[in-house]
Amino acid sequence: MEGLGSYTLPTGTEYRGTLKDGMFDGEGDLLFPNGGIYRAVWHRGVPTQGKYTFADGLEYKDKKWHYCDGYDRRFYTEICSGLIEPDISQLTNLDPPPEIPRGCYDCGDGFYNPETRVVVDYKFRFLRNAGMINFFCKVN
């Protein structure tokens, strides 16, 4: 692969940009299934500089990161649009939140089913096999 093009990884993540000798090389973006984008300059498959933007538009900063930092636990949508009604708990940054299938857990990038030990994305496409549930998953 050489020149300007795109490549879709088995996870559904797509690379769009320049390629050289079959590797990401030059300017290119990784577009993640959850809507996030990693825009970077690549050298032989390794990013030399880049910036990640979450699906909701929040840009990740590795220095002076104040989002969800222990002092301010609001979701980004709450920072931009204000808090929702006090008697309604916001459990995710998605509005409206995804409906969690019965017996499953929301793992941030999809649903974990403990019976099948499989994680699927929010459109019910396979993401990965899981041996054990991670501690950060939320129970429905």
TrEMBL record:
Its main location: other. PANTHER family: MORN REPEAT-CONTAINING PROTEIN 5. This is MORN repeat-containing protein 5. Gene3D superfamilies: Histone H3 K4-specific methyltransferase SET7/9 N-terminal domain. Keywords: Cell projection, Cilium, Flagellum, Repeat. The gene is MORN5. SUPFAM superfamilies: Histone H3 K4-specific methyltransferase SET7/9 N-terminal domain. It is found in: Cell projection, Cilium, Flagellum. Pfam families: MORN. One of its GO terms (cellular component) is sperm flagellum. It comes from the Eukaryota. InterPro entries: MORN (IPR003409), Morn5 (IPR042814). The keyword Repeat applies.
